Amino acid sequence: MEHPAYKIVSSHRIVDTLPHSPLHNGELLANRELAVSLAAKCKTEPPGGLVRVVHVPTGEVVFSKTSDWVGL
Protein backbone atom coordinates (compact mmCIF):
# COMPACT_ATOMS: atom_id res chain seq x y z
CA MET A 1 0.00 0.00 0.00
CA GLU A 2 1.26 3.44 -0.91
CA HIS A 3 1.92 6.00 1.79
CA PRO A 4 0.19 9.37 1.45
CA ALA A 5 2.63 11.63 -0.36
CA TYR A 6 0.45 14.53 -1.54
CA LYS A 7 -1.20 17.13 0.65
CA ILE A 8 -4.02 19.48 -0.40
CA VAL A 9 -3.64 22.82 1.37
CA SER A 10 -5.41 26.15 1.12
CA SER A 11 -4.98 29.67 2.42
CA HIS A 12 -8.73 29.66 3.18
CA ARG A 13 -11.19 27.06 4.45
CA ILE A 14 -12.12 24.46 1.82
CA VAL A 15 -15.92 24.24 1.71
CA ASP A 16 -16.75 22.15 -1.34
CA THR A 17 -15.27 19.74 -3.87
CA LEU A 18 -16.90 17.00 -5.88
CA PRO A 19 -20.28 15.74 -4.62
CA HIS A 20 -19.97 13.16 -1.85
CA SER A 21 -16.22 13.67 -1.41
CA PRO A 22 -15.66 15.81 1.68
CA LEU A 23 -12.19 17.30 1.64
CA HIS A 24 -10.40 19.16 4.39
CA ASN A 25 -7.40 21.46 4.40
CA GLY A 26 -4.32 19.30 4.90
CA GLU A 27 -5.88 16.19 3.36
CA LEU A 28 -3.22 13.56 2.58
CA LEU A 29 -3.53 11.36 -0.51
CA ALA A 30 -1.28 8.71 -2.03
CA ASN A 31 -2.23 9.35 -5.66
CA ARG A 32 -0.99 12.52 -7.39
CA GLU A 33 -3.68 12.50 -10.09
CA LEU A 34 -6.47 12.14 -7.52
CA ALA A 35 -5.03 14.93 -5.36
CA VAL A 36 -4.80 17.32 -8.32
CA SER A 37 -8.29 16.39 -9.56
CA LEU A 38 -9.85 17.05 -6.16
CA ALA A 39 -7.90 20.26 -5.65
CA ALA A 40 -8.98 21.53 -9.06
CA LYS A 41 -12.62 21.22 -7.97
CA CYS A 42 -12.11 22.86 -4.56
CA LYS A 43 -14.03 25.95 -3.54
CA THR A 44 -13.01 28.08 -0.59
CA GLU A 45 -14.72 30.38 1.86
CA PRO A 46 -14.17 33.24 1.44
CA PRO A 47 -13.75 32.95 -2.34
CA GLY A 48 -10.32 33.67 -3.77
CA GLY A 49 -8.34 31.28 -1.59
CA LEU A 50 -5.20 29.70 -2.97
CA VAL A 51 -5.47 25.90 -3.23
CA ARG A 52 -2.29 23.85 -3.71
CA VAL A 53 -1.19 20.24 -3.93
CA VAL A 54 2.18 19.72 -2.26
CA HIS A 55 4.43 16.68 -2.64
CA VAL A 56 5.14 16.08 1.06
CA PRO A 57 8.59 14.42 0.84
CA THR A 58 10.08 17.24 -1.28
CA GLY A 59 7.81 20.21 -0.51
CA GLU A 60 7.32 20.78 -4.25
CA VAL A 61 4.02 22.42 -5.25
CA VAL A 62 2.67 20.25 -8.09
CA PHE A 63 -0.62 22.14 -8.59
CA SER A 64 -1.91 25.59 -7.64
CA LYS A 65 -5.10 27.54 -8.34
CA THR A 66 -7.15 30.42 -6.98
CA SER A 67 -10.72 29.56 -6.08
CA ASP A 68 -12.92 31.95 -8.04
CA TRP A 69 -16.22 30.54 -6.81
CA VAL A 70 -18.64 33.02 -5.33
CA GLY A 71 -21.22 31.58 -2.93
CA LEU A 72 -24.86 32.45 -3.44
Description:
The protein has 72 residues and is mainly beta. 25% of the residues are buried. The termini are far apart. The protein has one domain (6-66). It has a 4-stranded antiparallel sheet with strand order 3-1-5-6, with helices on one face. A hairpin with a 4-residue loop joins strand 5 and strand 6 (60-66). The protein has one helix at 32-40, and strands spanning 6-10, 13-16, 27-29, 43-45, 50-55, 60-66. Helices cover 12% and strands 39% of the residues. The radius of gyration is 12 Å and the shape is globular.
For the CA atoms, what is the radius of gyration? 12 Å
Question: What is the terminal-to-terminal distance?
Answer: 41 Å
Residue ranges: pLDDT <50 for 5 or more in a row?
none
Largest beta sheet, briefly? 4 strands, antiparallel
Tally of individual helices: 1
| Bulk shape | globular
What structural category do the secondary elements indicate? Answer: mainly beta
Layout of helices and strands:
Layout: E1 6-10, E2 13-16, E3 27-29, H1 32-40, E4 43-45, E5 50-55, E6 60-66
Antiparallel strand pairs: 1-3, 1-5, 2-4, 5-6
Concise summary:
With 72 residues, this protein is mainly beta.
Keywords summarizing the entry:
72 residues; mainly beta; two-stranded antiparallel sheet; 1 helix; 6 strands; globular
